[in-house]
Amino acid sequence: MVNKDGFRLSWIVTLFWCIVNAPLGASQDLASVAELLPDCALPCLSSSFKEAACNLTAVPECLCPNTRLQADVSDCVRLSCAFNDQITVSALTNKLCTGYPIESRSDRLVITSIACAAITFPIVVLRCIARLKVTSRLWWDDWTALIATVFLAGADLGLGRHYWNLNTENAQTILQLIYAFQILYILIQVSAKGSLLAFYRRIFPNRRFQIAVWAGLAFLLGHGIVFLCLIIFQCRPIDSIWNRNLEGKCLNITAIVNSGAALSIVEDIAFLVMPIPELLKLQLGTRKRAALLFIFSIGSFACVTSMIRLKYLVNFDNSLDETWDYVNVIIWSVIELSCALACASLPAVWPLVKKIPGILSTVTGSRPRDTTDFSNRESHIKSDVKVLSRPQNRGKGGAGRQLYLRDTNAYLDMESSSKEDFELQTITKG
User: Fold this and answer.
1) Amino acid 131: pLDDT
2) Which end of the chain has fewer beta carbons closer than 10 Å to its terminal beta carbon, N or C?
3) Last residue of a domain, one of 41, 63, 96
4) How many domains are there within the chain?
5) Whole-model pTM?
């Protein structure tokens, strides 16, 4: 073992030689570094400078442009020093490297967030306009889509710089934001998928399918709550997640996040395939069927983005440069969540799209019909309804037959008609 006092003395002598031979401004910077540098960081600097063959008379010129060298020093310091000492070393190196360009990927986060917001927000807004125009109210799945969109607005955490380039006063804040994003991701994901399942439940009345949807919702909420609790209470005390001065006992967060991502991919596939058998049963023209299959299968891209995100999560394992390495995870998380929100909202936007001149004939291959004549509309809906004869009591001495909407022709017309048409999940006939 190297004598610590002797090592520090040799390091100070080396720095003194650098200070003497350096220009005036640089010598003042090096002197301040030598005075404030924690003991735990000295071996890290010495070994890293030696491996990089740095000229000790030009420490800033060797250290500051060399990202690999800064990473080696930072990793060593984080493994060797207490959190306060890490902050001290970071502040000193930032001071030493003043004027040198700082590598950053923050612009990627900004561009991704703006692009996803520009696509997702209008779709969700159109979804609500379409629903309000037809029913004068929002269903609970619309509210979850709105809540999820608000959550998504907070996804840009301002990350993208190397950990050692952070301002010392922002170090704990950044770690808190990463922790908040992990929670935010689960909330957005569960809200968006829950919105899609609620939409399925309302438009497909088949009993077996309804049971499958409720089972999917139960599984989604159950696994969401479990993973949310694991993320929130990943360390005890919770403050130790961002306050590295506290000694905390933590779960294997890497295993939790990776297993959650894998389970999410399975959910994406299951929810994507779920409505296809119901759609294939419908007697539709080729164009209408293609349009519907496109609307419900657009979520496949969300599934692909989930897989890409998982790849970056695996690469992120045991990273000591979270604020840099987490960028790809956040970018693909934002893209995935945006796709999930769009997939959950697009089917409900269809009634509004039908009112745009020329769109209906292009998509469905038919001419738009008059939507103002309710009697014609009602007769058209009833003609497209498949009758399932099942006795149902209707008060005293009454019996009737319940008609279930089975044809998406009826559903599409119902969506663009009056409030009563839209809410006509069943028609009771005496």
Assistant:
1) 73
2) N
3) 96
4) 3
5) 0.67
Q: Which position has the token pair 């990089």? A: 52
Query: Which domain covers residue 61, as residue numbers?
Result: 4-96
Burial zone of 430 (CB within 10 Å; 0-12 exposed, 13-18 middle, 19+ buried): exposed
280 within 8 A of 296, measured Cβ to Cβ: no
Say if residue 65 is preceded by a cis peptide, omega within 30 of 0. Answer: no
83 plus 15 within the same structural domain? yes
Instruction: Report how far residue 215's alpha carbon sits from residue 220's, in angstroms, rounded to the nearest whole number.
Output: 8
DSSP at 99: T
* pLDDT exceeds 50 at position 296: yes
What beta strand segments (E) does 217-358 contain?
235-236, 249-250
Residues 26 and 19: their CA atoms lie apart, in Å, by 8
Dihedrals φ, ψ of 250, to 5°? -120, 150
H or E segment and range at residue 386: strand 386-393
User: Is 161 in the same domain as 50?
Assistant: no
Q: Could you tell me if 10 and 139 lie in one domain?
A: no
For the beta carbon of residue 79, count every other beta carbon within 10 angstroms: 11
* Model pLDDT for residues 79-127, shown as the tens digit of each residue: 888 878 887 888 788 877 888 887 888 788 778 878 888 888 888 788 7
The tokens describing 248, both together, are 């905390």
The answer to whether 323 and 272 are in contact (CB under 8 A) is: no
Confirm if 59 and 93 have CB atoms less than 8 A apart: no
